[in-house]
Amino acid sequence: MSSLQRLLDIMASLRHPETGCPWDKQQTFATVAPYTLEEAYEVLDAIDRGDWDDLRDELGDLLLQVVFHARMAEEQGLFDFSDVAQAIADKLHRRHPHVFGDAGSTDEAALRTAWEQSKAEDRAAKGEDSLMDGVANNLPALLRAVKLQKRAARANFDWGEVGPVLAKIREELDELEAEIDAGASLARQQDELGDILFACGNLARHLGIDPEQAARGTNAKFERRFRYLEKQAALVGADLSSFDLEQQEAWWVQAKMLEKAKP
């Protein structure tokens, strides 16, 4: 028996209506979905840390999510795991004619064009007639913003250079400041802040930077530096909150300098 078949059999046993696990039996697509998202992020975390043993385990946890959803679908007569595997295999075959078909071009631009054409055909087959269709609503907001912008760029609704994007960010910042100064409602301020974040996503796209990765890097940097502040406070036997902002800022500058001094 293959390891994959063993996993499928175990899931079938866990979902057995009479002898299965009480928790597994009561799950639905909706209740399992948050775990699916969580496991995907844990895969990413293992990759970021370069922990390959953990990556193996996290990929297994993510595979379990696919098996779980496929099993529930099979129970409802929708599809099974084999259908899932077949669908992605067919899609990969269809979108790589330069590997599996007659198209022999390996030019990167030509391959990208062919890929997008194939995706457009898939969307048309699903009845999607807008470039905005098919961008998952549950994606992280900044990632979804970039995907929407990329779709719009296919219709040439885009700036050709970075300058206007930077100007747009400054414009949006000014608009938010005006709302704050005017004592605007939280809803109005939220709307303007959203415009700033959307424009920042656009800047990341124009620079060829993954905004989610950039944000994760900054989060990690902030965490490292804040831990340094806590350590400095602990060295003198005090809690960080007992120091004023001026002292905290001095330690923050030290943390930055130490990081820059590292090779």
Question: Helix count?
Answer: 12
Structural class of the helix and strand makeup? mainly alpha
Gyration radius, in Å: 25 Å
| Beta strand count | 0
Instruction: Calculate the terminal CA-CA distance, rounded to whole Å.
Output: 51 Å
Order of helices and strands: HHHHHHHHHHHH
Mean pLDDT figure: 92
Shape: extended
Weakly predicted, low-confidence segments: none
How would you characterize the largest beta sheet? Answer: none
Portion of residues in beta strands equals under 5%
Give helix % range.
over 70%
Question: Mind explaining what this structure looks like?
Answer:
The protein has 263 residues and is mainly α. Helices cover 73% and strands 0% of the residues. It contains 12 helices and no strands. The protein has helices spanning 3-14, 22-25, 29-49, 52-75, 81-94, 97-100, 108-125, 141-153, 163-181, 186-207, 211-235, 245-261. Helix 3 (29-49) runs antiparallel to helix 4 and helix 8 (141-153) packs across helix 10. It is extended, with a radius of gyration of 25 Å. The N and C termini lie far apart (51 Å). The model has no long low-confidence stretch (mean pLDDT 92).
